[in-house]
Amino acid sequence: MAAPGAIRLGVNIDHVATVRNARGGVHPDPVRAAQMAKAAGADGITAHLREDRRHIRDGDMVRLRSEVGLPLNFEMAATDEMIAMALDLRPHACCLVPERREERTTEGGLDAAGLAADLAPRIDALKGAGIRVSLFIAAETRQIEAAHALGAQIVELHTGAWCEHRLAGGDIAADGEFRRLMKGAQHAAALGLEVHAGHGLDYETAELIAGLPQVAELNIGHFLIGEAIFEGLDAVVRRMRAAIAKGQARALGQVA
Ligand code: PXP
User: Fold this and answer.
1) What is the Å distance from ligand 1's center to 256 Cα?
2) Is position 95 within any domain?
3) Residue 218 is part of a domain; what is its CATH number?
4) How many CB atoms lie within 10 A of CB 130?
5) How far is the CA of 199 from the centre of ligand 1 (A)?
6) Centre of ligand 1 from the C-alpha of residue 192, in Å
7) 206 partner at 20 to 30 Å CA-CA among 37, 88, 103, 195?
C-alpha cells in the first residue's frame, strides 16, 4: 500500500485473463494475480469488462470484488448493460471509457464534451449508488471542463499518445504530449478533480509522470503483466512502486 500522500498504483489484470482465454480454461486466474499484486504493494485493481468479454468475464468482476480486498476500479463503456452491472457489483470506482469492438485496446479518450447528454444520467446513477466516477479522457481543456460539469470526481488522463511517442524514440520529458498532460493535470486539479493517469506506462514513463504533483493514481497493466513473464508479478509490482516513489520524491526535491 502507498504511504499517505504517495501516488497510488492500480494494477490492471486484464491481460492475465487474455492468456487464460487463449485456452478457454481457468488458468492463469486473474483473481490470483490481483491477490499477488496486493501482496506486492498494489493499492487497487483495475479490470475492464469489455462488451465482447475478450479478456475479463462477468464472474471475474464478482470475484475481484469479493476475494481481493482492494479497491476495485471497474473500467467500462457507459452502456446500459455495464451501468446495471456496476450498480449491482458496487465497485469502489467506475472508470468510463470509449469502446469500439474492432480496437485492440482503448485507443482514445472518452468524448465527455460531445456525449454529455448521454453520460449525465449514467454518471448520476453511479454517484447515487456511492460509486466514484472517473472519466478516461485526453488532456484537453474541453474534455476536462466537460468532466467537471458532469460531476465526475476523477479524470484519468490518457497517457497513450505520450508513451507511443516515446516508443518511437521521442524525448519523453520535453515533448508536447508531456506538456499537454502537465497542463491538463494542473487544470483538472484546479477545478477540484482528482487526477489519475494511465495507458501504455512502463517504469520510465511512470517515474516521469509521477513527478506531476497533481497525480494521485496511476493505472498500469500491459507492461506489468508482460514483464511479469520474465521477472514475476511480485517483483515487477515492487519495481513499479519504487519507480513511482522515485519520480514523486524527485519532484518533491527529496532526492537528487
Ligand atoms: N487506464 C485505462 C482507462 C485503460 O483503458 C487502460 C487499458 O485497459 C489502462 C489504464 C492500462 O493501460 P495499459 O494496459 O496500457 O497499462
Assistant:
1) 31
2) yes
3) 3.20.20.70
4) 8
5) 4
6) 23
7) 103
The pLDDT tens digits of the residues spanning 191-231 come to: 999 999 999 999 999 999 999 999 999 999 999 999 999 99
Find the residues whose C-beta lies inside 6 A of ligand 1.
12, 14, 48, 75, 95, 97, 105-106, 136, 156, 198-201, 219-223
Q: What stretch of H or E contains 253?
A: none
Q: Is there a domain that residue 145 lies in?
A: no
pTM of the model: 0.95
Domain annotation covers residue 231: yes
Query: How many other C-beta atoms can be found within 10 angstroms of the C-beta atom of residue 4?
Result: 5
For residue 163, is it within any domain?
A: no
Which atom of ligand 1 is the closest one to the Cα of 201? 16
CA of residue 106 to ligand 1 center, whole Å: 7
| pLDDT exceeds cutoff 60 at 9 | yes
Tens of pLDDT, residues 110-129: 999 999 999 999 999 999 99
> Structural domain of residue 112, as residue ranges?
8-134+202-251
d(CA 42, CA 64): 14
Question: According to the model, what pLDDT value does residue 254 have?
Answer: 67
Q: Could you count the other beta carbons within 10 Å of the beta carbon of residue 153?
A: 17
Checking if the pLDDT of 169 tops 80, the result is: no
Which residue among 15, 55, 75, 227 is the active-site one? 75
Q: Structurally, how many domains does the chain consist of?
A: 1
Cell of 254: 527529496
Q: Which of 55, 148, 199, 207 is catalytic?
A: 199
